[in-house]
């Protein structure tokens, strides 16, 4: 899947890849990965590319996109302008936007800043940082207990308890909680989804990256239909928090995918694609 390139407003050369022949005569869906990291872990989103062409953006400093001269531009609110530059590059009057995990913070701020340029918005495993919804340690532990029958549960839950209580930091031990099935495929995919640019990750949430009250107020003017899809077991994006997030939009639908974790297109490809393709049209 070869990369194409365009330039951000500050001159940084950014890369994206196009996959799929679905609806080839129609507009594509622009996809923002989480991390921030190389978009390749998204694959073709479980076969969504059979329904819509996907434009997969590599955020600055990841994948084949260049490292910016000004690394403070890794900040989430500044990445919004890269998405707008991509829309202009593609020549789309309005675009459908899909984002995953941390990338949903970028997409949410895009919806707040450029509501008239948005067709439909799909937030997959949505992060709530941009709108200031706190996810408590107890919420995460309560959700994790749904996995108590898994063989890896005792060790993973002990690590989670320590992290949420501020006495531990073994993040690797809790990775099974992010997947609906902790098998060899999931382990390989989770490793591939890890960010490779630690500076980009650190500066993504630097001071000023999020202005929750301003963003929440602006979202009331976003008339685009919004889908929030949360996995039933997603420790990163609990369904309860996603429901609160959905209430901030004038036209939002919440779908909780049964048996899914943070990568729902892997856990049940048919269910995921049916839901998202149906929403995107």
Structural overview:
- It contains 10 helices and 8 strands.
- With 281 residues, it is an alpha/beta fold.
- The protein has one domain: Rossmann fold.
- Strands 1-2-4-3-5-6-7-8 form an 8-stranded mixed beta sheet, sandwiched between helices.
- Strand 5, helix 2 and strand 6 form a beta-alpha-beta unit.
- Helix 1 crosses helix 2 and helix 2 packs across helix 7.
- The two termini are 25 Å apart.
The counted number of beta strands is: 8
Rg on CA atoms, Å: 18 Å
- Counted up, domains total 1
What best-fitting shape do the alpha-carbon axes yield?
globular
Instruction: Give the strand content.
Output: 15-25%
CATH topology type: Rossmann fold
How much is the average pLDDT?
95
Residue windows where pLDDT falls under 50 for at least 5 positions: none
CATH architecture assignment: 3-Layer(aba) Sandwich
Distance between the termini: 25 Å
CATH superfamily heading: Alpha/Beta hydrolase fold, catalytic domain
> What is the helical fraction, as a range of percent?
25-40%
The helix/strand order is: EEEEHEHEHHHHHEHEHH
Structural class: alpha/beta
Output the CATH class name.
Answer: Alpha Beta
Short descriptors:
281 residues; alpha/beta; Rossmann fold; eight-stranded mixed β-sheet; 8 strands; 16% strand
Please give the structural blueprint.
Elements: E1 3-7, E2 13-19, E3 29-32, E4 54-58, H1 76-90, E5 95-100, H2 103-113, E6 118-124, H3 137-144, H4 153-164, H5 184-192, H6 198-204, H7 212-219, E7 226-231, H8 239-246, E8 252-257, H9 264-267, H10 269-280
Parallel strand pairs: 3-4, 3-5, 5-6, 6-7, 7-8
Antiparallel strand pairs: 1-2, 2-4
